[in-house]
Amino acid sequence: MFFILSKTVTVLLQPSNLILLIGIAGLALMLMGWRRGGTRLVVTSVVLLFIAGLLPLGPYLTHALERRFPPWEQDGGMSRGAPTGIVVLGGVISPLLSRQTGLVSVNGDAGRVIALAHLARAFPKARIIYSGGDASLFGNKRPETDFVGPLLDDFGLARARVELETRSRNTAENAVFSREIAQPKPGERWLLVTSAQHMPRAVGAFRAAGFPVEAYPVAFQVERHLRLRPGFTVGNNLARFDRAANEWVGLIAYWVTGRSSALLPAP
To answer: Which residues of 111-132 are buried (b: 16+ CB within 10 A; e: fewer)?
Structure first.
């Protein structure tokens, strides 16, 4: 039930969708004769569109998430020696596009698989787990892990080097099923590779699952020293706001349902 709700309610709660629904509701009221109430909703929709589309709300929310965990090297990771293992979270490959084009299609989170190749060479004895199943609503698609092999070939890495976790559909399941494969022992060091914006929720989920990890954030989206100034690329601003809001909603939902160790996990 949680998975279904996360795939449906979250979409409705995205700022751009809410703004659109408010505007549609206002137009509907106006057509039904309730002009005053309808006009207020339409005006509210336009004002919210202006705020979300022009003001740097998305970058601000993203920055707060991305700076929660510092880059691993800056955190002294290399000085502590080689890790026992590395868990790379999926959400990078589009199974549908990869199947249709015959080429592995990656998205803006491709920094995760780039980090996989880098870490595999930097730590040749470390175990590597790639966690990513079928995240579609009805679970009737091919898992993302089906398309990892060709990427490893391109990277010049043996496919046997990476253990594939194929069942997970969300971050909480990434943590539970990766732990089943890793079977981490006391004193072992495991790195968790995911996008910087997603790292707080991911770390919280792994801690709740009893899998202690060190954060290895990648795919940063905003500058380290953020300058909060208006921008006129409305579509880009809305998309960034939507994604950041989705992550914050996810943090709250995971904490309320016990799938995260804290509301906003920290190092």
So the answer is: bbbebbeebbeebeebbbbbbb
Show Cβ contacts of residue 5 under 8 Å, excluding neighbours closer than 6 positions.
none
* C-alpha–C-alpha distance, residues 92 and 106, integer Å: 5
Is the dihedral angle over the CA atoms 66, 149, 141, 95 positive or is it negative?
positive
Ordered domains of the chain (ranges, CATH): 2-63+232-251 (no CATH), 71-220 (3.40.50.620)
Calpha distance 178→180 (Å, rounded): 5
Q: What residues contact residue 117 under an 8 Å CB cut-off, 6+ apart?
A: 155, 157
Dihedral-angle region of residue 207 (phi above 0 means left; psi in -120 to 50 means alpha; beta otherwise): alpha
Render 245-263 in DSSP notation, one character per residue. HHHHHHHHHHHHTTSSSSS
The pTM of this model reads 0.89
Compute the distance between CA of residue 9 and CA of residue 149 in angstroms, rounded to an integer.
33
- In whole angstroms, give the CA distance from residue 121 to residue 67: 27
**Per-residue pLDDT tens over the stretch 131-140:** 998 877 666 6
d(CA 193, CA 17): 30
Structure tokens at 227: 């300058």
Render pLDDT for 210-241 as a digit per residue (tens, 0 to 9). Answer: 999 999 999 999 888 877 676 677 888 888 89
Tell me if 89 sits within 8 A of 148, measured CB to CB: no
